[in-house]
Every structure is written in C-alpha cells, then in structure tokens.
C-alpha cells in the first residue's frame, strides 16, 4: 500500500502509553497514525491534512472529550470513535448523543478495535468540499417539506439551502425513514436497515439518534412534523416525500 492509499487516523489521548500502543498496532495494520495529547495538537493536525477517522479518549485530563467531539462534528464529517475506561452505559449514550459513531471500552481487544475501525471506514463517506449550497440536479434526492436529502452526495440541505452536518448513523437512519414514508419501523428494523448502525448497537442508540435528528430537522423537536413516534411500535416518517 502506498503512502497515498493509507487511511489516516488521528489518535487524541493524553496517556502516552496508550498512544504508543495504538500507534504501533495500527501502523502495523497499514494505517497512518497521527498523535495528539490535547485539543491544540488535535486542531493542528486537522487543519494541516485530511483525516479519515478520529479515535478520542472520552476522559482527557485537562479537557472534556465529549465537548471536543461535538466541536469536531460541527466542522467535519469523518467518523469518531470514543474510547473510555469507565463502564457506565450513560457515558456511551452521551457519547453517541453528542457526536460519536462508535464507542469502545478500555482495556480493549486490539483485534476488535481494528475490526471496528475498518468497519467505520468502510461505511464512511467524504463529503465533497462545498463551494456553494447549490444541489447538483443529477443527484438522487429526497425532498420533504422544504428540506433536501441528497442521497448521492450524502448531504442534507435545510430550507434555506444551508448544509446540515449529519453523522454516519444519523444520515443512515434518516435515509431509511425518508425512503419509506408513513411506514412504521421497530427499533430492531431500523438497526437492521441502517448502514451506519452495524456495530453493537442497542435500542437506546436508536432513541438517541432520533433525538439528534429531531433537533436538527424539526422546528419543534417536542412536537415533530416529520419523525413521529408510534407508541409501543417504533418510529415512522410522516410524508409526503418526493424523489428528485
């Protein structure tokens, strides 16, 4: 594999031993690994070169990993995997709610970690550098209300044409719902059909992603216009939805 073909991972962890371990292991798997022990180094790397995936410690000594992940998510679309040594499920839910695409507990099995990195990269996409808010008319799009979900570029445009950043899981879930307006999906069916939700998800993950999507596309998330709850059954997307 040439240097140009290598996927670039950015490891954000203030534990030097962990960074050394992961750098060695992931480099042996053919990845280019950049290291950052704090947000200053992280932003420096992100501004200097393209990064394909971020591995971020949830509990940095001087900074909040969740806040950093949320800041990254506002500007970039690469997958984010959160790493933490604490086992509280609430932490995992918070990580997913704020920005993460996957989550692993320390100590972790390196084979499982690399497999899940590979899975995230396989599902990931790179949104093109957008110089305008114009939607390519040749793209396959779903339109609901005044929103446009560009399936080809995997981008969401709000009623004013502005781009709205979605994580992999958010986009996949919205695509499944919008492709099948007025059909009720159980949480299990949404997990099964969403490409962004392949790794070790649980029912609560779907609820969190629905919450995140409502915050982004609904004028009032508490009384949603598009993503509706069918009590006891699951969720459905209220049409109409137009194709192109």
What is the tally of helical segments? 8
Largest sheet: 5 strands, parallel
Helix content: 25-40%
Number of strands: 12
Cα Rg:
18 Å
* Main structural class: alpha/beta
Q: Write the element-wise H/E pattern from the N-terminal end onward.
A: EHEHEHEHEHEEEEHHHEEE
Give the amount of beta strand, in percent.
15-25%
Report the CATH C-level class of the largest domain.
Answer: Alpha Beta
- Unreliable stretches (pLDDT < 50, length at least 5) are 126-132
Distance between the termini: 39 Å
Overall geometry comes to globular
Residue-averaged pLDDT: 83
- State the strand order across the main sheet: 2-1-3-4-5
Notes on the structure:
The chain has 8 helices and 12 strands. With 244 residues, it is an alpha/beta fold. It folds into 2 domains: 8-123, Rossmann fold (3-Layer(aba) Sandwich), CATH 3.40.50.2300; 141-243, Arc Repressor Mutant, subunit A (Orthogonal Bundle), CATH 1.10.10.10. The strands form 3 sheets. It has a 5-stranded parallel beta sheet with strand order 2-1-3-4-5, with helices on both faces. A hairpin with a 5-residue loop joins strand 8 and strand 9 (163-164). Helix 4 (89-98) runs parallel beside helix 8 (203-217). The longest helix is centred in the C-terminal third of the chain and has 15 residues, at 203-217. It starts with 7 loop residues before the first strand and ends with a strand. The model is unreliable at 126-132 (pLDDT under 50).
């Amino acid at each position: 594999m040439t240097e140009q073909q290598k996927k670039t991972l950015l490891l954000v962890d203030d534990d030097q031993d962990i960074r050394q371990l992961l750098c060695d292991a992931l480099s042996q798997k053919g990845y280019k690994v950049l290291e950052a022990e704090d947000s200053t180094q992280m932003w420096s790397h992100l501004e200097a070169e393209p990064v394909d995936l971020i591995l971020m410690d949830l509990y940095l000594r001087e900074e909040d990993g969740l806040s950093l992940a949320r800041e990254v998510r506002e500007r970039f679309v690469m997958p984010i995997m959160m790493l933490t040594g604490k086992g509280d499920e609430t932490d995992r839910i918070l990580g997913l709610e704020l920005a993460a695409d996957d989550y692993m507990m320390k100590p972790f099995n390196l084979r499982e970690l690399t497999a899940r990195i590979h899975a995230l990269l396989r599902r990931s996409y790179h949104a093109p550098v957008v110089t305008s808010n114009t939607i390519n008319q040749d793209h396959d799009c779903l339109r609901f209300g005044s929103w446009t979900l560009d399936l080809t570029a995997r981008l969401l445009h709000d009623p004013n044409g502005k781009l709205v950043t979605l994580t992999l899981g958010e986009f996949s879930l919205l695509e499944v719902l919008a492709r099948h307006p007025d059909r009720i999906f159980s949480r299990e069916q949404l997990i099964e059909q969403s490409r962004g939700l392949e790794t070790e998800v649980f029912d609560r993950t779907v609820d969190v992603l629905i919450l995140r999507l409502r915050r982004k596309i609904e004028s009032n998330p508490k009384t949603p216009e598009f993503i509706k709850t069918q009590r006891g059954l699951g969720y459905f997307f209220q049409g109409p939805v137009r194709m192109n």
